Write a sequence for this structure.
């Protein structure tokens, strides 16, 4: 419910949060997370943008590029999401709060909100960052068309060591066939309006 709430007024289409959550699960599994851990991550990842519920519509739904002031407002969604989700001590919400706060941090320290770098960024957020960017580039949005797969992979490989943890990105590339299968399955469900049947249940 919180995942859906965070994107209710967003320009993201359809099942973005569930696709990227499924990618996060597959990547965490490859990295050796236990079954209980990667299942929890899948549910928590879907709440990564919960804080967008606090972003004004004129910023959130702007069809073009954000100006500097609008971008500063948009960046606050990480702290807003953390503030909402961290009110619970349940493991799911503690993990979701961690991801919400840190999924825009970058490996080289150039991200936000706190400019964390390398292993100071929680592994959960480093996983979700890769899954989120991959899906965002692969989907149509009002201000851009979906990128071809080759262009997405080139961009992500160029971003290793800058935006992304290089080792986690290597793991992502190694499970790319599984990621593409998940992408196809979710896209078909979206077309057939059956996505609700694939949403993981707590």
């Amino acid at each position: 419910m919180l995942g859906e709430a965070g994107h209710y007024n967003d320009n993201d289409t359809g099942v973005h949060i569930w696709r990227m959550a499924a990618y996060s699960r597959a990547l965490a599994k490859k990295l050796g997370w236990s079954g209980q851990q990667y299942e929890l991550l899948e549910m928590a990842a879907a709440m990564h943008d919960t804080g967008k519920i606090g972003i004004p519509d004129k910023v959130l739904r702007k069809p073009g590029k954000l100006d500097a002031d609008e971008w500063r407002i948009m960046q606050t969604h990480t702290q807003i999401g953390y503030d909402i989700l961290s009110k619970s001590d349940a493991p799911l919400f503690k993990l979701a709060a961690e991801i919400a706060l840190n999924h825009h941090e970058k490996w080289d320290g150039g991200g936000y909100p706190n400019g964390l770098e390398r292993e100071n960024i929680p592994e959960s957020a480093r996983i979700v960052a890769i899954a989120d960017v991959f899906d965002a580039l692969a989907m149509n949005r009002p201000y851009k068309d979906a990128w071809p797969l080759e262009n997405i992979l080139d961009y992500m490989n160029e971003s290793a060591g800058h935006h992304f943890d290089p080792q986690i990105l290597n793991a992502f590339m190694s499970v790319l066939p599984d990621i593409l299968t998940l992408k196809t399955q979710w896209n078909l469900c979206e077309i057939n309006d059956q996505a609700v049947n694939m949403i993981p249940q707590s």
